[in-house]
């Protein structure tokens, strides 16, 4: 018999249990429709379908985080 407060036999802990990711509090992701190119906000349990045309192929929108890449500059050395 399982003790009170302990999940029995491999049960998955609920959303209020520490150490689990809060999937119910996630913000909707923005996806772009492959047909009409409209932006759609889709939550984790929403069907993957465009709200404008009903197309089912969606692409995740790219992030707007800028990345700065430094490339090494080599100075030409003269051999005298």
TrEMBL record:
<dbReference type="GO" id="GO:0005736">
    <property type="term" value="C:RNA polymerase I complex"/>
</dbReference>
<dbReference type="GO" id="GO:0006351">
    <property type="term" value="P:DNA-templated transcription"/>
</dbReference>
<dbReference type="InterPro" id="IPR029040">
    <property type="entry name" value="RPABC4/Spt4"/>
</dbReference>
<dbReference type="Pfam" id="PF03604">
    <property type="entry name" value="Zn_ribbon_RPAB4"/>
</dbReference>
<feature type="compositionally biased region" description="Gly residues">
    <location>
        <begin position="7"/>
        <end position="19"/>
    </location>
</feature>
<comment type="similarity">
    <text>Belongs to the archaeal Rpo12/eukaryotic RPC10 RNA polymerase subunit family.</text>
</comment>
<dbReference type="GO" id="GO:0008270">
    <property type="term" value="F:zinc ion binding"/>
</dbReference>
<protein>
    <submittedName>
        <fullName>DNA-directed RNA polymerases I, II, and III subunit RPABC4</fullName>
    </submittedName>
</protein>
<dbReference type="GO" id="GO:0003899">
    <property type="term" value="F:DNA-directed RNA polymerase activity"/>
</dbReference>
<dbReference type="GO" id="GO:0005665">
    <property type="term" value="C:RNA polymerase II, core complex"/>
</dbReference>
<keyword id="KW-0240">DNA-directed RNA polymerase</keyword>
<keyword id="KW-0804">Transcription</keyword>
<dbReference type="InterPro" id="IPR039747">
    <property type="entry name" value="RPABC4"/>
</dbReference>
<dbReference type="GO" id="GO:0005666">
    <property type="term" value="C:RNA polymerase III complex"/>
</dbReference>
<keyword id="KW-0539">Nucleus</keyword>
<feature type="region of interest" description="Disordered">
    <location>
        <begin position="1"/>
        <end position="23"/>
    </location>
</feature>
<dbReference type="GO" id="GO:0003677">
    <property type="term" value="F:DNA binding"/>
</dbReference>
<dbReference type="InterPro" id="IPR006591">
    <property type="entry name" value="RNAP_P/RPABC4"/>
</dbReference>
<keyword id="KW-0479">Metal-binding</keyword>
<keyword id="KW-0862">Zinc</keyword>
């Amino acid at each position: 018999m399982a003790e009170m407060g302990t999940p029995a036999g491999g049960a998955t802990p609920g959303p209020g249990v520490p150490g689990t990711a809060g999937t119910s509090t996630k913000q909707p992701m923005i996806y772009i429709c492959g047909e009409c190119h409209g932006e759609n906000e889709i939550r984790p349990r929403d069907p993957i379908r465009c709200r404008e045309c009903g197309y089912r192929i969606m692409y995740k929108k790219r992030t707007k985080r800028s990345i700065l890449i430094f490339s090494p500059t080599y100075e030409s050395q003269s051999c005298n």
